[in-house]
Amino acid sequence: xxxxxxxxxxxxxxxxxxxxxxxxxxxxxxxxxxxxxxxxxxxxxxxxxxxxxxxxxxxxxxxxxxxxxxxxxxxxxxxxxxxxxxxxxxxxxxxxxxxxxxxxxxxxxxxxxxx
Amino acid sequence: xxxxxxxxxxxxxxxxxxxxxxxxxxxxxxxxxxxxxxxxxxxxxxxxxxxxxxxxxxxxxxxxxxxxxxxxxxxxxxxxxxxxxxxxxxxxxxxxxxxxxxxxxxxxxxxxxxxxxxxxxxxxxxxxxxxxxxxxxxxxxxxxxxxxxxxxxxxxxxxxxxxxxxxxxxxxxxxxxxxxxxxxxxxxxxxxxxxxxxxxxxxxxxxxxxxxxxxxxxxxxxxxxxxxxxxxxx
Lengths: 115, 234
What we know:
heterodimer; A: alpha+beta; 3 helices; 5 strands; globular; B: alpha/beta; 10 strands; elongated
């Protein structure tokens, strides 16, 4: 898989969307984060998912662990407001020193509430 | 995402349909588009055509529509691996391929080889490959590997898939075995281009010895072929 390509071809990850449904059915507030664009060397391909609840439980991944903490944090706000958000991470990002991708790649992550 | 949309995505995925979830990034509005599903609502015709292309190419990504950028997440059924020969190598190969996300089917007319005990959880077809292959309809998301090195079983399997769209065809056997196979297939009327599609001897050259190691080399080569195709498509 080229770093900038989608991964529809391959089993994406554990069943993050299925897990999100389980959490929702349990009455938990849930956000779903999805990798929507990547440039350069990004560890997780377009279409990768991370599901997050308000207890900061999460399943899946949108990077090799570099930005998950930041995404989980942002997801709390998305769950509160119900408004989806696009998060941008990469070496050129102002947050690079905090949560940049060590690999030098860039990634855009769409975060939405499951409601 | 509305829970109702998620339910539909999971149901369509379970039914192994070819479809995409389309998210308007400006508004968060979402709709589901099925390949060839002209009846799906909520997506303008130009965007629908781009989405259907994405589904065919198995490629999630962002496309531009009238309402701005839309994220297209493609859901296609699992890739398939058809293994001909329920032999020892087929056992680790079936397990590894399953972990890598393939739906695995093992074809072997010899009932004592293709047993549920030897292949737990794998779809088994106790038929000759020339009968078994056509209904399985190997498409561009299918890999085929023959492992019996018995011409009576492997040759009909290869004959049934050489003109298919399968993205990978591999046949176990030494260089000598493969040379003889190439000759037989040429006599049977297959052209050099068709016969040249066969990876033989099968697998990447890793110096593999045990059945599990040989399975690694085969799965590695299947993976390489899959992504080589994507690089061409890109």
